[in-house]
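Troubleshooting: if your tokenizer reports a length mismatch, compare your output against this known-good record of 504 residues.
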Amino acid sequence: MAPDGAHVYVSNGSGPNDNPAGTTVTVLNTPSNTVGATITVGNSPGGIAVTPDSTRLYVANRGSRTVSVVDTATNTVTATVGGFSDPTGIAVNAAGTRVYVSDSAYPNGSVRVIDTASNTVTGSVTVGPFPQDVALSPDGARAYATNHGDNTLSVIDTAALTVTATVALSDQPFAVAVNPVTGAAHISHSNDNFLSVVDPATLTVATTITTAGNPIGAAFSPDGATAYVTSFSSNSLAVINTATNTVTENAPIGSGPYGVGVSPDGTLAYVANTRSATLDVLRLATVTPAPAVTAISPASGPTAGGTAVTITGTDLADATAVTFGGTPATGVSCAATSCTATSPAHAAGTVDVQVTTPGGTSATTPADQYTYLVPPADIDVNLTAQPHLGLLVPYLSYTLTAYNTGPGAVTSATLTAKLPPGATATNLSAGCTVAATTVTCAYDAIANGAGVNKTFRVPLSLLTLGQVKVTGLRTVSAPTDPNPANDTASATCTAISIILVTCP
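Known-good structure output:
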């Protein structure tokens, strides 16, 4: 399968019923699934690989002991690389600069390296007898070669071109494929009914997977979660869960399935059947990934809800729900990487915003947090004065009012009243105290649109003459007061004599 998904290449190394009649590569156009071209290469073409940019095709010709280089734009052979004993498997590195070819021979086979700029063999690594296939690790730092002759796997350092480890296997290993995510090497044992899975960290066989008869080719889904393995004698394709290393299905296909490839989007598998000389195209069941939330904007809003929120993340399409702290949002609309939703009402505090799709519900992270804020409450301070005169105990009566203009409810507040020099206060309402010339009054909860009064008296003396000014001030309140302009108020009375005082 070409990395760009536009073509599938099938090497025709043998004809129906294993008759050796192959000298061509068939080009299948996708998605029409029609044959677009037939390319003549060497005798008995087998291993085949396409460069990451899909511009060149490399074909190992066992019968002519060569590797053909094909220009995929023109479907013509542009070079032929010789010097091989029996080229079998083939792999291209991610940079498209090197081609690794397993060269089957006895007593020592090799993995030869073709430089793609010059189309010449520039390196060779001795491995075990009769290497049948070669595959690269996801980072390209290693090459794995299956040695059919001594039941081993050679691990090659691709920078130094040396064998750094030899893994003991069993029962004639054949093809090797590497999980693109975990790096685990899956080796098919074509004369038996199992695969060996080699751990890339320990370079030991971590487990074996029982399959149907004679497993040959293997390919992985792009996310590495599923492996697809052809079973030659049972005419089936094994579907393997790579997390549990178990076969979940054996799909029936054509006769003598050999090679397999998966489309770049993971939705199709292409299986070449040698005995029936057919190519099966299978629609694969894909796993929908779970969504993830990476950002919230804005990240806060009032407890009443109603805020338009943009949720950014991955795999958010087809969302069935968006919740704020478990409470469903309204007005939900989602694309692949973003959702818009209207926040529901919720108690004050920080909550997680989660998106649910057919793939699951997004995991909670600090990036998905939304804070419900208590709405501000504005206190309007009012102060009124009323004279109470007489020769016995004259005084001025003051009312200090905290009026809540909203929009939220006041939970607590403190107002003060500053008296003239030398003055004091008596007959204070509950919650009020006096120290020197300052009256301090504490207020409990005040609903939106309500006011609470506190009163006190300022006695008058025979010497009180002129203006008597008292100033009220909001000093603190909760929640936040958004308007400082109405936080003060004054009341000024004019004393002409102890029995003649006017207050506006």
